[in-house]
Amino acid sequence: MKKIAAIIIVLLALGYPASACDVCGCSLGGNYLGILPLYNKNFVGLRWSQAKFHSYIAPTQYLSAQQSNDTYAKVELWGRYYITKRIQLFAFIPYAYNDMNGTDQVVSASGLGDINIMANYVIVNTGEIATDFKHTLIAGGGVKLPTGKFNQEDKGKIINRNFQLGTGSVDFNLNAVYTLRYKRAGINLETGYKLNTRNSHDYLFGNQYRASTQLFYWQKFGVFSFLPHGGVNYEQAAMHKDGNILQVNTGGSAWLGAGGMDIYIQRFTIGVNYQKPIRQNYNSDQTADITSKARWTTSLTFNF
């Protein structure tokens, strides 16, 4: 424990404040697809998301207390296109804007993030069959390209890695989504794994795992269709490595309660989703406290 505390003190002295976003790679993680009931539709849209974290390091005999309130947001151009009846191509182009408001460091960053390209295969789809039970299973994977800036500095020192707009590495995503519906009600299960590689600075972000379960109910009123949904999300990340050295206060896991609503108006879909942490278990030591706050996602898509 004394060694960990000493490492934290050295990092702070060098101008690398422990930021809450080190824990799970909040703005740099994989992409949730969510509930996509229009299985046979292409779409393009914009999606805005925001996550907030708070970190606190208790005072020591060498340093006063340190804290930071960090906000990670992005606007994402994304879409889906059916190459064939069973092959879906997804693309995610994010524009990120992050703010760090800490005791000794106040800094912001904005710009193009890392672009994701993914292909899924429709293994099962009974959506067009006239039956009360309908289910769909899709699975696939993709690649995250190092298009976002990953070496931004402040006062001559590189800002903590997860605050950067990108990772600087080529990373790989695997995902699967299963949806079961009985008449108007259903359940959506989603899971994904992100395998990271080292960037040119020999820095390795910990691999990430995510899963979600959402219950939903489909209701139609005139030209409007409503899809309220709620459930729970889980996310987990391994510790980061700088060279072969594990980085303190990185990695961990969290359970989040989630709820939202999708509204369909002819070819357009408006969506909103809210997530609130239920349980958090980040890899922080006795001197540090890292807390994830509520998260928001809103979206507007055009189906064609």
What is this structure, in a nutshell?
The chain is mostly beta strands and 304 residues long. The protein has one helix at residues 2-13, and strands spanning 43-57, 66-82, 87-102, 106-112, 116-125, 133-144, 153-154, 157-158, 171-182, 185-195, 203-204, 208-217, 219-221, 224-237, 241-242, 245-246, 252-265, 268-282, 288-303. The protein contains one helix and 19 strands.
Mean pLDDT: 86
**Estimated radius of gyration:** 20 Å
User: What is the count of helical runs?
Assistant: 1
Q: Which strand order does the major sheet show?
A: 1-2-3-5-6-9-10-12-14-17-18-19
Q: Structural class given helices, strands, pairing?
A: mainly beta
Count the strands?
19
Number of separate domains: 1
Q: Can you tell me the CATH architecture?
A: Beta Barrel
The CA-CA distance between the termini, in Å, is 57 Å
Which sheet architecture does the biggest sheet show? Answer: 12 strands, antiparallel, barrel
Beta-strand residue percentage? over 45%
Overall helicity: under 10%
Structure description:
The protein is mostly beta strands and 304 residues long. The protein has a single domain, classed as monomeric porin ompg (Porin). It is built from 1 helix and 19 strands. The strands form 3 sheets. Strands 1-2-3-5-6-9-10-12-14-17-18-19 form a 12-stranded antiparallel barrel. A 3-stranded antiparallel β-sheet has the order 11-15-16, with no helix packed on it. Strands 7-8 form a two-stranded antiparallel ribbon. Strand 18 and strand 19 form a beta hairpin. The chain is elongated, with a radius of gyration of 20 Å. The termini are far apart.
